[in-house]
Q: What sequence folds into this?
């Protein structure tokens, strides 16, 4: 996984609450057996006027010119600000894969759905929870100035907007550590293989049926 | 010291290590695998040269992509990308030595129907699957939740997950459910009360006399939609219903192991003095048959209501969401629910495709006919075994006589990853779990209802109050 230490980027505002994973990456694109290539179909039903299908040439499709990510001002955006409960719905990791493949490095919202939030960290995408008021202030700032950028300082756990004071955010120590160092979680867990085996031994005695072959 | 909740007990029983940074390693007893969220996980194992930690922990089947018309082999799946995923799962389970109920196996079906049906999920387990509706399995007093593909790989490789303990929430539904009110109405009502993010960060225990009165199938329906209330995991404590359901299933313990298991499982209830971080109390008498009208499961009303007015909503974010939903759904605030016409009906999904659901739908369909204005009514059993049982009871004949289509098991029109789908603008009475934009097909308009309410809409051509069906 790529490290995330500090990021400075253009901000795109997606002014909707409860954005679900079916919107982030519609189901027809889940049929891929790869982790990459989902970017052109991020928010497919909102970005394009026609219905998308896997493997098509997206460059010739009619664009919904009103959709925020299609506006010239937000081309190259790498930070998304949005409203509460972002990423609700299915557990598809294709949602963070699509956001990253498109070029996003961080998502800022007042709240995230649990599974989506968790999935982001496995891929080096940083979800940041800020208060409703702070998110609202960012929306106003972004709408007020073309090319609005922010800096995210993960080490210091703060969002530094172009204007105004830095905004601190919370993050689990373990997740922060993994992101800062780009660590492979499976490798880390396998360092504890002895503990897992010891646990298994105890469980096998207490609940042998859990370990039965079938 | 306060007593423990069911979730506390399940968590503690699976804790491998508690780390200083607050994260923990928890042991995973069962992983259910399907074709859509697993290919990248197996590929990850291969790239890193890793083997599964314990192959007996996993059981796989195909559901999301499969057509619901008869087919004999992967080669018969017309859609290239679907066929590749089905084939890839078969290749991966063979390569790594994992049990799969594949094409033509009577045990094949929707992951969350197949696993409890086989006894592959029993009380006291931790259960994961790359599917958010894994919460369904919590009905058996398990800690069951959906995970992403990176975690599917992590569980395959280590049999554990890195996790942090969630908070405890209990939703108690007390009293007797009225006639025509089913498990689906209970959970839609709960979501209407607490909202789609109400359970975020919580493990949700469903309790109370109304919950205990539900069959195991009904409890699965409720736990299934815990995720639509924002909670990754939903669960119900062990009682006689649980024990009776598990007994005799193929993977369930037998003989002396059974006695030992049952004695342990009986302890899987929240202690009387357990403390919950959040408690919600609901009177069963307040629950009516429900119909969702919008594009989020919390946009739900009783069937005898009129659609809500966004102007009356004080929360600005919610108000704009409602306005957008009305536009997408092509409906008007204030109109009676029963004026909404349906174009297609879908009876199936991991929420409502078990035998009890099909019986409820058949009871309504019996002696009635699909309305002429309804283009299609799909009835899709959750597994080959559910299909077999339904046919034994003659339910298939009831459906066919009513003009409904009787299909092969799979996820079908719940998510339109297969040939079953809505056309743009069509309204669907659906027993599935999500009414998101485009969920059942680009531009499709989903209304979530119980199986009986879906069948009633199919015969009337519009929503009807199941309690007044004979007068409709």
A:
């Amino acid at each position: 996984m790529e490290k995330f230490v500090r990021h400075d980027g253009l901000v795109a505002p997606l002014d909707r609450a409860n954005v679900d994973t079916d919107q982030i990456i519609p189901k027809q694109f889940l049929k891929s057996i790869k982790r990459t290539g989902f970017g052109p179909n991020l928010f497919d039903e909102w970005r394009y006027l026609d219905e998308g299908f896997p493997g098509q040439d997206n460059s010739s499709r009619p664009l919904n010119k009103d959709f925020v990510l299609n506006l010239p001002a937000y081309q190259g955006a790498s930070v998304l600000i949005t409203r509460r409960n972002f990423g609700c719905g299915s557990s598809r990791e294709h949602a963070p894969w699509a956001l990253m493949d498109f070029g996003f490095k961080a998502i800022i919202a007042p709240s995230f759905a649990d599974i989506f939030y968790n999935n982001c960290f496995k891929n080096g995408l940083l979800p940041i929870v800020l208060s409703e008021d702070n998110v609202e202030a960012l929306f106003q700032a972004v709408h007020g100035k073309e090319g609005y950028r922010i800096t995210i300082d993960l080490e210091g756990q703060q969002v530094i907007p172009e204007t105004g004071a830095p905004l601190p955010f919370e993050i689990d120590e373990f997740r922060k550590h993994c992101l800062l160092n780009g660590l492979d979680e499976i490798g880390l867990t396998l360092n504890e293989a002895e503990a897992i085996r010891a646990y298994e031994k105890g469980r096998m005695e207490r609940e042998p049926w859990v370990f039965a072959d079938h | 010291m306060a007593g423990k909740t069911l979730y506390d007990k399940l968590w503690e029983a699976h804790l491998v290590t508690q780390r200083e940074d607050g994260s923990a390693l928890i042991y995973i007893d069962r992983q259910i695998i399907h074709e859509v969220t697993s290919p990248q996980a197996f590929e990850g194992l291969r790239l890193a040269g890793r083997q599964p930690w314990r192959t007996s922990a996993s059981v796989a089947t195909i559901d999301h992509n499969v057509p619901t018309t008869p087919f004999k082999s992967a080669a018969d799946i017309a859609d290239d990308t679907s066929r590749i995923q089905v084939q890839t799962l078969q290749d991966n389970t063979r390569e790594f030595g994992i049990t799969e109920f594949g094409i033509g196996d009577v045990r094949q079906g929707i992951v969350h129907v197949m696993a409890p049906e086989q006894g592959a999920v029993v009380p006291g387990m931790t259960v994961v699957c790359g599917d958010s509706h894994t919460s369904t399995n919590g009905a058996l007093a398990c800690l069951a939740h959906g995970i992403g593909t990176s975690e599917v790989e992590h569980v395959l490789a280590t049999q554990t997950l890195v996790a942090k303990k969630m908070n405890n929430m209990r939703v108690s539904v007390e009293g007797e459910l009225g006639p025509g009110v089913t498990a689906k109405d209970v959970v839609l009502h709960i979501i209407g009360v607490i909202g789609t993010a109400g359970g975020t960060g919580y493990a949700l225990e469903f309790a109370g006399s109304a919950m205990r009165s539900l069959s195991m199938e009904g409890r699965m329906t409720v736990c299934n939609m815990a995720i639509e209330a924002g909670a990754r995991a939903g669960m119900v404590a062990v009682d006689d219903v649980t024990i009776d359901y598990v007994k005799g299933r193929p993977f369930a313990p037998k003989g002396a192991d059974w006695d030992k298991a049952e004695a342990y499982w009986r302890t899987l209830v929240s202690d009387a003095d357990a403390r919950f971080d959040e408690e919600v109390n609901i009177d069963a008498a307040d629950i009516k048959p429900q119909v969702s009208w919008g594009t989020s499961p919390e946009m739900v009303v009783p069937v005898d209501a009129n659609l809500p007015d966004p102007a009356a909503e004080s929360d600005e974010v919610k108000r704009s969401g409602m306005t957008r939903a009305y536009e997408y759904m092509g409906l008007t605030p204030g109109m009676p629910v029963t004026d909404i016409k349906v174009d297609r009906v879908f009876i199936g999904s991991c929420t409502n495709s078990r035998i009890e659901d099909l019986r409820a739908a058949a009871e309504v369909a019996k002696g009635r006919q699909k309305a002429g204005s309804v283009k299609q009514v799909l009835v899709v059993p959750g597994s080959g075994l559910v299909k077999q049982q339904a046919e034994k009871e003659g339910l298939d004949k009831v459906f066919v006589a009513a003009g409904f289509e009787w299909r092969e098991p799979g996820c079908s029109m719940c998510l339109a990853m297969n040939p079953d789908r809505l056309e743009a603008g069509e309204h669907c009475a659906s027993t599935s779990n999500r009414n998101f934009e485009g969920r059942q097909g680009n531009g499709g308009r989903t209304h979530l209802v119980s199986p009986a309410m879906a069948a009633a809409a199919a015969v009337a051509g519009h929503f009807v109050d199941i309690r007044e069906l004979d007068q409709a």
